[in-house]
Amino acid sequence: MKTAIVLVQTSKKEFAPLARKVRKALIEALSVLQREDAALELHILSNRAMRAINNATRGKNEPTNVLSFEGDGFPRADVRGKTYLGEIYLAPEVIRVRGEDAIFLAIHGLLHLFHYTHEKNRDRITMEKAEDGLLAEIATRI
Asked: What is the pLDDT of residue 82?
């Protein structure tokens, strides 16, 4: 059976249980999307690290809950034979303070890697429907 690859990196050991849970959810989501041919990176970061990335990429000098960046098409030896989608970054400390759900935000980031946006109202509605549908599909699997 083919399985998507989700490479995980955490900035703190205490983030490891969350990383395992989110990784499983992303693998299941990619299966539902019939993208077992895909690979992506998942980074679980401290507020400090997320602030640095948010500042460097968006000019916002504050941590945020989730960021995602599409892959650049560069071939990677560790995901050979897979389509590299990109990277998803989560900041569990921000997520906890805001009372948000890390799996929901990971799915949100994943959909961005598939070119979903929420810039316009109709885009937001489309993305929310996709999020809800995907979360419902994987709920019994995770």
From this structure: 87
